[in-house]
Fold this sequence. Notes:
Helix content is about 10%, strand content about 55%. It is mainly beta. The chain has one domain (about 1-269): Porin, CATH 2.40.160. The chain starts with a helix and ends with a strand.
Amino acid sequence: MTKSLLIYFVILSSTSSALAQKGYMDHKNYFDFSAFGNVPLASGSFNQTEFKPSGDKMIKSRDWLDYGASFSYYRAMSKSFSMGLMSSFKHYELSLPSNYTSIYSSQHNSSVDTTLIRFESLRYRNYYFGPTFEFASKNGSSGIGFTYDLSVGASISVFRDGAYGYSLNEFSLSDNDENWTNLDYYETGFDWKSIYGVFLQTGFKIRYPFSDFMSFYTGFRYTLLVNYKPKSFIDNADKNIFNAEDVYFQIQRENFFTTTLDFGLTFYL
Length: 269
């Protein structure tokens, strides 16, 4: 994919000088910088109970917002068509199981102990890279007014190691707060490989100029993402809460289809 992007960039650079047209206010090049967010309704994460540190306790919370930022470069190829490159990143969280089991065996019998746990959600970050194409409306012009775009490329999902808060309940299956230990922290050091995938993204935006070289825009973006499962991400034999295969399927569910709301600025050169 990296080689393909380099080839695309070379083609873009070599052809744009000859084919590029003048877009908004006679500018041939423009850059988008935006912040975006989405409520994870399609994945179902919004309905899951998560936990976060508060004082010396772990308290319940909701995964109500995933967010990120993006950058795009466009070259106006005609009055209504531009092409370029895009990159973006997104922060999101994955919830963990609320209990784990320990199996004790002896010559005569075996027993299973269940421990309730409140563990802070795992922090992940996605990166997206690829070519992008923008189309202006029939009466519009490249880089201004109502436009829609199409991007395709590669994605990388990366786990963010760090100190994660947790609390245990070993004495009762009740969720009463008095049964839980005080907040403690677990320093992760997982040998989890990054997860790679391919994405298709489309959407529309409306740009509002407020100077000859700058405009504000807002719009919606729709992303479809399919990940490749690393061979090392296999199901654990025991009931360890850090189950790599579980995490992979959560990443796929969280990112398979998302709708984001964008706010950004466009700069013209």
